[in-house]
Design a protein that fits this description.
The complex is a heterodimer of chains A (109) and B (339). Chain A has 109 residues and is mostly beta strands. Helices cover 0% and strands 46% of the residues of chain A. Classes of the chains: A mainly beta (109), B alpha/beta (339).
Chain lengths: 109, 339
């Protein structure tokens, strides 16, 4: 029988990400991550834009979209789908787990 | 007459000749204005106009989303200044031109067939043709509104030759003018060079060119540039060409002329619809070109330098395969996005 071991990675406390803002988080064995707080709902994606070397945490959040600060391309924060040129490759998203006050992601190991 | 353009938040200003385009004028001044396609599609050259007046060429350019329009954003490649302006954009060193683009008159010298729907057009300008392997130019064709971007298949040369291999687009205004109306001796305006998907001779890696359709031209230029560059004499080149049917396959005869073909330069072709073969049986590979790349290369893909040119679905599939499944660093994958 195969068992899958999951590791829960703590990223930050909920109150470290103000409403409708994002926080960049570095953890081991992952690219830089972006934690978004959309009116109390938390989402985690890769922080680096799929078009260039920009940090999405420095971009503007507009509803459910985050806009890249370099060329104003956009992604849907909830799904990672590109939502504005020049972005055409989807952004990686992570399943979020809330552990008490902590925002966490699960990664298979 | 010319207008002075200031970039907000910087000390940079540049002159834009009356009638010229904002993006092109900035690049002519040697500034790194961000861009890829130059024709309104990719959305990389967005800017905000803080002061002054511009005329928009292509109002429905796909590079702008509804959100962009609501926020008053414009595309620098579609903006023709009508006064001095102050613009907000982010300069990017990677876009700073190695040789500054300029518009020159050129005469069509000869036309030759490459395949049933691709022809090579050779234009000659009044001075040496200066560009990097893999770059493109904008052609202003007689009777055609707006510029068309076509890649050069040859290398920079003192005799002023610009060779384009162009695939005929049914009902396309640009290619109809080229294929049906233009004759040797006719004049056009060539504005270039442009493009960021040029050969990187410093990358100490084997090279992979992935081409489809009229993506042949820039990939041939890359191959020719690599073959003639002594700094790259230890690199190998894998050249892949994907066509829909057997009669679309091309490029091998031109690669055969390069020193090292069969030794360090290899040609691989595949067709996605072999059943449409009209000129005999196809005994080669079938399937999509990005799949052939994956099957053929024997090292980890992250150990190669990739150059891509072709139709959008081919580029997207190759990009997904390289950057996604094989984690090739984006800095090793070069293409100009026309979509």
């Amino acid at each position: 029988m195969t068992t899958t071991e999951h590791v829960i990675h703590f990223l930050c406390r909920k109150d470290e990400v103000p409403d409708n803002e994002a926080k960049r988080v570095l953890i081991a064995d992952h690219p830089p991550l972006a934690v978004f707080n959309l009116s109390g709902a938390y989402y985690v994606t890769d922080d680096k834009c799929t078009h260039g070397e920009a940090s999405l945490c420095e971009g503007e959040i507009d509803g459910v979209l985050v806009e890249c600060p370099f060329h104003q391309g956009a992604f849907d924060i909830r799904t990672g789908k590109p939502a504005g040129a020049p972005c055409s490759m989807p952004l990686k998203t992570y399943e979020v787990i809330m552990e008490g006050d902590g925002v966490c992601i699960r990664s298979g190991k | 007459m010319s207008f002075s353009i200031a970039i907000d938040g910087t000390d940079e200003t540049f002159d834009c000749r009356d009638g010229d385009i904002l993006l092109r004028a900035g690049l002519r001044a040697g500034l790194g204005l961000p861009y890829e396609c130059n024709v309104g599609a990719c959305g990389t050259c967005k800017f905000e106009l803080l002061a002054g007046e511009v005329e928009t060429l292509r109002g429905d350019a796909p590079g702008l989303s509804e959100r962009d329009r609501t926020k008053g954003r414009m595309l620098a490649c579609q903006a023709r200044p009508r006064s001095g302006c102050t613009v907000k954009l982010r300069l990017d060193d990677a876009c700073r031109p190695a040789s500054r683009p300029e518009a020159i008159p050129a005469v069509l010298r000869e036309v030759s067939a490459v395949t049933h729907d691709i022809q090579e057009f050779c234009f000659v300008g009044p001075r040496p043709a200066v560009f990097l392997p893999g770059q493109y130019a904008l052609l202003q064709l007689p009777g055609v509104d707006g510029a068309r971007a076509y890649s050069m298949a040859n290398l920079a040369n003192a005799s002023g030759e610009w060779r384009f291999q162009i695939r005929r687009v049914p009902r396309g205004a640009g290619t109809t003018a080229l294929f049906e109306h233009m004759k040797p001796g006719d004049s056009v305006v060539i504005d270039g060079p442009y493009g960021l998907a040029y050969l990187r001779p410093d990358a100490q890696r084997d090279i992979v060119c992935i081409a489809g359709g009229s993506g042949l031209a820039p990939m041939l230029s890359i191959a020719r540039g690599m073959a003639g560059n002594t700094a790259m004499s230890s690199a190998r080149l894998h050249f892949f060409y994907g066509g829909r049917t057997p009669r679309d396959i091309c490029g091998e005869s031109m690669l055969r002329e390069l020193p090292g073909f069969g030794e360090r330069i290899a040609f691989h072709a595949t067709v996605s619809s072999p059943e449409f073969g009209q000129t005999g049986m196809w005994h080669g590979h079938t399937g999509f070109v990005h799949e052939l790349v994956e099957q053929t290369l024997d090292k980890m893909l992250a150990q190669y330098e990739f150059y891509l040119a072709g139709p959008p679905p081919m580029i997207e599939a190759a990009q997904k395969m390289l950057l996604g499944a094989h984690a090739v660093p984006a800095a090793q994958v070069h293409f100009d996005r026309y979509f």
